[in-house]
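FAQ: What does the model actually see?

It sees only this:
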Amino acid sequence: MSYTVTFIPGDGTGPEIAEATKRALEATGVKFDWDIQNAGADVYEKEGNPLPARVIKSLKENKVGIKGPITTPVGSGFRSVNVALRKELDLYCCLRPCKSYEGVQSRYTNIDLVIVRENTEDLYAGIEYQKGSSSAAEMIATIERLSGVKIREDSGISIKPISEFGTRRIVKFALEYAREYKRKKVTAVHKANIMKYSDGLFLEVARDVAKGYPDIEFEDRIVDNLSMQLVQKPELYDVLVLPNLYGDIISDLAAGLVGGLGVAPGANLGDGIALFEPTHGSAPKYKGLNKVNPVAMMLSGVMMLNYIGEKEAAKSLEQAISEVMKEGKVVTYDLKSKKDDSSAATTSEMADEIIKKISQMR
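And it is asked to produce this:
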């Protein structure tokens, strides 16, 4: 059996780590028919659109995709391709496991957290009004009329929608995930003490959904308290389910507990469709240097293998990655104890070593 998968190399260092990941996935023995689709900054320069319609069409048809990182300009330029993909395909769940691996430098050991982030609502919904615009002035006037709250005229406005529908499906996903993977507890994260009608709704609905899962321990935490406790006592937590903005921030915090974004995989999931990707950026200054760490994208490949039901292949790929990092010999510079270690491997050399480990298992 061969799996048709949309393959998006990305830009910056994306193509290098994407190629390394593709080779490692093929080394597991699983057969793939790659539907290669380019997107991102390079495509924007050529086609005037960083996310051509052909990319969306491919993902809708194939139902499974894996992508390298794509640059998002800061402050100007095109909007995030990642956000556009999530909206267009209704990839409402961002799933980010954060797990300790021996050989990866970190202040912590034995971390095993799963972040389940709602992907479509909250302050990332993209409902914004620019300072000084007529729409911002109208929104400011409307808010004052409805609430009596006076907002300064030189304000930019962002709207934070959280719906019962969006909350119900993301909390259900977290609880179903916990049940399937035999996790012990789900914690809903919020700021309901302050934002009573948005985060308050999130908490109310989460508690209601949790009633249908008596086999899974359920609790909630205020996001600032959770942030402190993750640093002090991360062992208290297992699966975290969060609205969009908190999920973005806390998933990076959790990645920091296990050594950084270079070992943090991710997936964006909808109903019957999934896109797997590393959670770090495209690092354009390292483009073409064959230098960067491919682990986050390879671990995203592990998630993809599990998703399509290739459990043994997923296990062998993760084990190979883990062994190479534990040995610490053929790893990229950022996985060395000293960043200037002259023995650091290139991206492709580390991929070769991981592939070698896989072949020894088969």
